[in-house]
# Entry
Amino acid sequence: VYKRQRSHSMNLAKIPYIIDLCRRRAREGHLPVYRQLFEIMVLQITRGIGYDMYHYAGMWERTATWEYKRSFLSYRDFGNKVYQLNSRKFHGMSQYKPFEKAFFNQCHIPNAAYLGTLNEHSGFANDGQPLRSPGDLASLLENHEGKRICVKPVQGSNGRGFKAYHVRKKNGEPILQHLSGGDEYTVNELFALLVDESSEGWLLEEYVEQHPVLKAFNPSSLNTIRMFLYQKANGEVIPLKSFLKTGKPGELIDKTENGGASVFIDQETGVLLDGFNWSPEMRPLHEHPGTGVPFAGVQIPFWKEAEAMAVSALKSFAGTRFIGVDIAITEQGPLMVEMNVHPDADCMPVLRLQTARIFAT
# Structure
């Protein structure tokens, strides 16, 4: 599940920060401070909508109607609604990576090539051979010399625990060199490290070589599209909104905080708009803070193909009407990285997704 720290109520310690936020918007020509504070209080009491959602969604704009401000679900109501739309019995499938991988392959949804699931007791490679010991791992790597592989915990999201290595030989033995830090591990060392970090197991897959257009923003991370889709009661699937996640220089994952950036996308065309910092301040970013590469006007390759792939994923997933997906773009086309049936609630106001209105259809 995508999660962020959220404020659900008017924490007294945050009042100076909230007032500063309102003053900033007032100086920009939007609603006066007293009006913003009054609306935040009313929305908190009547809808459970706090100052953070108020600012994420731009409710301080003079043109924002009261109807618009009431068209968002609070974080709690959003969570409850997701459980109504998406049957709980299928949630674990998208949260356990080997199951998710099998689903992608069964439904012909392009994704990174699966190598195996490493586990001391039940691991297996993609050819059915065991993957339960350092010797099993060495046998698998024999066929991947000179290539890059990824290692992910079988459970988790948001890139937690992600690792990537370059497989090569040293003195006739396979060596794995970490793509970010450069540290080298023997097969025995890596196996012991993985088992010690998570006894539940690890998913192994081929490293995704992303399209140069997306790689340019930050070459070290796999920069992905996060797209949200909704299936209406009549069965029609609608791609709602998307944004691009770009990582911090030197990091392997596309975490947008502390040196990375998120970027709005025109959903119709797939053209990038401005970036933004992920906080209630929503400060615009015109270029990547680490690499200086500008965002606006860049066309994401294979945009319509990426949309079609995401639509197919939702249509194929049982008992589910609302998802968030992470999509990578390669020179050959889009690849599905991850699918989540309980997306981060903060994304809804940031993308101006009026959930109370959308989920009523």
Observations:
- The longest strand covers residues 237-246.
- The radius of gyration is 22 Å.
- Residues 1-9 have pLDDT under 50 and may be disordered.
